[in-house]
Design a protein that fits this description.
The chain is of the alpha/beta class. It folds into 2 domains: 3-80, no CATH class; 84-346, TIM Barrel (Alpha-Beta Barrel). Helix content is 39%, strand content 20%. The strands form 2 sheets. An 8-stranded parallel β-sheet has the order 10-9-8-7-6-5-12-11. Strands 1, 2, 3 and 4 form a 4-stranded antiparallel β-sheet that branches. The termini are far apart. Mean pLDDT is 90; it is low at 357-365.
Amino acid sequence: MTKYYTRACNFYYGKLSKKLVQNKKTLPLCGNKEISFDQVEIFSKKKKKISSKIINIKKINLLSKLTKKKVTLDIKKITSKKKFLNNKNHVLMGILNITPDSFSDGGKFNTNKKAWKKINEMKNSGADIIDIGGESTRPGSKIISPKIEWERVKGIIKKFKKNFPKILLSIDTRKSLVMKNSIKYNVDIINDVSCSKFDVKSSEIIKNKNLWKVIHHMQGTPQTMQINPKYHNVLLDIYDFFEKEITKMKNNKYPKIILDPGIGFGKNLKHNLIILSKISIFHSLGFPILIGTSRKKFINQISKNFDSKERLGGTLSSVLYSLSQGVQIFRIHNVKEIKQGILVFENLLKKWKKNILVQMELGAQ
């Protein structure tokens, strides 16, 4: 049996996009008329054979009955508004690692005083979410006990909502004990990189809770994930993984889902670049997409001699490219700099497309 996948592509932005949507020449991405598309890439997979073709949305009616039905359903999901975003063009998730050994900032914020200062800094810089973690999941990291992990984060978790009621609180943990304790203090998001595979009790802990759950993809464990990761097709393999996990969630009446393809978690450079280059495929699953490229190793692998400590240039480039494909949630370390880059990028995109629209209208006269 052949399975089909649909990826929105060939995007338009700003006033040009709104004009094209109005004239029914393009379709809005995630309900946002300021970014729209007029083509889709259709992947077909039969056993191990995979092929793809790009067609204009006007030619969908020419597809076979089975393909047309699947693509039409996918487009409905691609164009639907994503509830989590609340009409925002982008959402920034600031990273707070209260650990001694995280790959980028281990030991920098592992006291309450330093942590509160960092939270205030990220809030004032434009963070919509603060993602707090008490255990490193970098490649080769060591597992710590749930009690030690909770001891690291509890001082912040317990008082977070009293100090920052309008900021979403995310707990980055694989452990049911830490989840259970965090839920008592009104955590908004459970960000488990193992997707409930590390601790079997975690699924029951979050079941029927009014929380957002990040479905995160990781091949292997933090201890093994970078030892020669392999995929049949990394893009479609992750899509199938998401689809399977979404079905489980829906069966448990748990629709508040965010998708994270897990850049750098069991992926080599080629895998990461394939995911980022065609990340818009995940819109057809119907949920908001989150990416975490901040300071990741793939930036060093590309930039080589031009690498830098915080890898800010590479991080910003990956964020802006993903933003241009409709990704809107970004897990980052340097909140102010990324916020600045996005605001300038969005403004330039609107101005540039405005000029293109004027030229088009003048040419039509």
